[in-house]
Amino acid sequence: MSELQNLVDALGPHRAADLCRVHRTTLLRWLAGQTRVPAAALATLRAAAWGQMPGRERAWDGWTFDEGYLWSPEGVRFSRGDVASLPYVRDLVKALQADVARLEAQLVAATRAAAETDRASNDAAIWPDDVRSRAFPRTA
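User: That's the sequence. What structure does it adopt?
Assistant: Structure tokens below.
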């Protein structure tokens, strides 16, 4: 059975013809192999029947549309609002990363100042993986 026949079986002939904006006799000619099926028609039917993303980019393999959502190959669901908010989320993440870098620099400076006033400090030994360890010079 051809891919086109599978798609038409999944959608029904009336819906398939309607999606492709063709008359049912055109669809029948495609099914009979009398005329070539336009690539755009196949892409439209694949999207409607199987949720397959249009286009040939391999980066979209496994992504589908179903139940009004975009689904990742890992099964993560994205709504229209999720996708529309991505530029704002990206800007928020950049702003938060800048805040974290600024606060870490302040913490390192305060740790350095505290270590200079309290020579008994052993912070470098206590927090080897902590951001505060940047306050102490590394000895090799």
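The chain has a mean pLDDT of 86.
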